[in-house]
């Protein structure tokens, strides 16, 4: 036993010195025959694992990440169609007027009644403001009295002169009749005198009577001529006075009528500048009106679209309550500073006047018609797609569960539709709502 323990201790001591001694091995210093070494089991295991790892790596590399999922209720799709495609540009803006009509007082007076309020629709002749002026009423009454008196005097003068002319003409006729009888008497006496049946004295008396009557006729003719001349002058003077008084009366009546201020036409009351009790002088502004026939539309059109708009293009305008009217582009202005110059002001002449109650700043939407492609392949415009260029869109597969990204060449278009030049066919369905959240994906799954 002791010998065995000593051998064990000797072996352990050698092991502690770094030498590996198998139990039962020969003592140190002896020649030991060795067998050739065989491959270890670790190398065999490694040789079996490496191909498997390579295959797994290749398999993982071949797998793609699952496409993202979109909610089918939250996307908008559209089918590619073929047919006529209007080329249109959309704009928005408001009605404007080149000149507001101002209604001013033409006479002095105190505001007795304000018959309208801002926003009221008025027709031609509708009362706007009522003024009061007692002095003007008195002046008009006085002018009426003077005109009435002058008219009566003029009538009396014409009657008087007419009567005098008739009397003078009657006397003249009588004198001419007397002259004719005297001439016949002279002729008879001359015949009698020639036969010795009349005395020279009778013949001389008859001749003198003719001379006297001729003088009376001459005087009557001169008096009648003088009466006509002076009478015409008196009538003319009185007529001029009467006309002057009539003009004064007419002017006073107009001033009196001007106390009631009426609308000059169909319009919308923009503002009332006076209140009841105010004293106004001629020229004081009373009311500001907007005349519909003087209104136009000023639209804002995106710069890119406005480049295609030309004067004369047809326009359809729709107001806030759905009423529509036609128009024509008058002027395409230079880009404004509004929103960084991204918009262009387009002035539109209205085909028909808007409603009478259309305010100068009423909002309108407009579609400007640029042309028509008779036969085009088109689709509803996707949210991010422009014109005349390549864009990628998601095309929905036939089963409607997956949409894959495809490159599409688009052409001209409208604000809501665009022409398809390449990449899609009639009947293809694409997603037209905003898909910018999936820019990194080539496909999406529709749930």
Topology of this structure?
Blueprint: H1 2-16, H2 41-62, E1 69-70, E2 77-79, E3 81-97, E4 101-104, E5 109-114, E6 121-122, E7 127-132, H3 134-195, H4 200-257, E8 260-262, E9 267-272, E10 279-280, E11 285-290, E12 295-302, H5 303-306, E13 314-319, E14 324-335, E15 343-350, E16 363-380, E17 389-396, E18 402-413, E19 417-422, E20 429-431, E21 443-446
Parallel strand pairs: 1-21
Antiparallel strand pairs: 2-20, 3-12, 3-16, 4-11, 5-7, 5-10, 6-9, 7-8, 9-11, 12-15, 13-14, 13-16, 14-15, 16-19, 17-18, 18-19, 18-21
Helix pairs in contact: 3-4
Describe the overall structure:
The chain is an alpha+beta fold. It folds into three domains: 72-96 and 292-446, Elongation Factor Tu (Ef-tu), domain 3 (Beta Barrel); 102-131 and 259-289, OB fold (Dihydrolipoamide Acetyltransferase, E2P); 134-257. Helix content is 36%, strand content 32%. The chain is built from five helices and 21 strands. The chain has helices at 2-16, 41-62, 134-195, 200-257, 303-306; strands spanning 69-70, 77-79, 81-97, 101-104, 109-114, 121-122, 127-132, 260-262, 267-272, 279-280, 285-290, 295-302, 314-319, 324-335, 343-350, 363-380, 389-396, 402-413, 417-422, 429-431, 443-446. A six-stranded antiparallel β-barrel has the order 3-12-15-14-13-16. A hairpin with a 3-residue loop joins strand 18 (402-413) and strand 19 (417-422). The longest helix is centred in the middle third of the chain and has 62 residues, at 134-195. The protein is elongated, with a radius of gyration of 60 Å. The protein starts with a helix and ends with a strand.
């Amino acid at each position: 036993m002791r010998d065995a323990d000593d051998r064990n201790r000797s072996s352990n001591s050698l092991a502690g010195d770094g030498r590996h001694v198998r139990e039962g091995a020969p003592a140190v210093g002896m020649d030991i025959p060795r067998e050739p070494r065989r491959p270890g089991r670790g190398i065999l295991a490694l040789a079996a694992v490496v191909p498997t790892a390579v295959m797994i790596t290749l398999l993982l590399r071949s797998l793609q990440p699952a496409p993202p999922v979109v909610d089918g209720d939250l996307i908008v799709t559209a089918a590619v169609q073929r047919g006529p495609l209007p080329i249109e540009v959309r704009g928005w803006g408001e009605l404007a007027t080149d000149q507001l009509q101002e209604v001013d007082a033409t006479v002095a007076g105190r505001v007795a009644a304000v018959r309208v309020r801002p926003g009221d629709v008025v027709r031609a002749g509708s009362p706007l403001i009522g003024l009061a002026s007692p002095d003007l009423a008195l002046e008009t009454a006085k002018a009426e009295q003077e005109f009435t008196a002058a008219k009566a005097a003029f009538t009396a003068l014409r009657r008087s002169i007419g009567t005098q002319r008739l009397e003078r003409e009657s006397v003249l006729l009588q004198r001419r009749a007397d002259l004719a009888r005297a001439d016949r008497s002279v002729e008879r006496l001359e015949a009698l005198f020639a036969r010795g049946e009349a005395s020279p004295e009778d013949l001389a008396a008859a001749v003198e009577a003719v001379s006297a009557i001729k003088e009376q006729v001459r005087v009557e003719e001169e008096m009648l001529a003088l009466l006509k001349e002076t009478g015409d002058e008196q009538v003319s003077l009185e007529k001029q006075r009467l006309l002057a008084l009539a003009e004064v009366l007419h002017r006073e009546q107009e001033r009196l009528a001007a106390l009631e201020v009426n609308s000059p036409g169909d319009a919308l009351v923009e503002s009332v500048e006076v209140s009841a009790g105010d004293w106004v002088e001629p020229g004081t502004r009373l009311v500001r009106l907007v005349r519909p026939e003087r209104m136009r539309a000023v639209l804002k059109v995106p710069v890119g679209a406005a480049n295609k708009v030309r004067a004369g293009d047809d326009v359809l305008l729709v107001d806030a309550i759905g009423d529509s009217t036609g128009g024509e582009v008058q002027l395409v202005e230079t880009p404004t500073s509004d929103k960084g110059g991204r918009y262009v002001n387009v002035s539109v002449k209205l085909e028909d006047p808007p409603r009478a109650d259309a305010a100068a700043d009423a909002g309108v939407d407009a579609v400007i018609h640029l042309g028509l492609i008779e036969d085009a392949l088109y689709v509803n415009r996707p949210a991010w797609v422009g014109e005349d260029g390549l864009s990628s869109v998601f095309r929905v597969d036939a089963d409607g569960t997956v949409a894959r990204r495809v490159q599409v060449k688009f052409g001209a278009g409208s604000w809501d539709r665009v022409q398809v030049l390449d990449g899609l066919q009639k009947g293809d369905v694409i997603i037209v709502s905003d898909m910018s959240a999936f820019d990194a994906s080539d496909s999406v799954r529709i749930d």
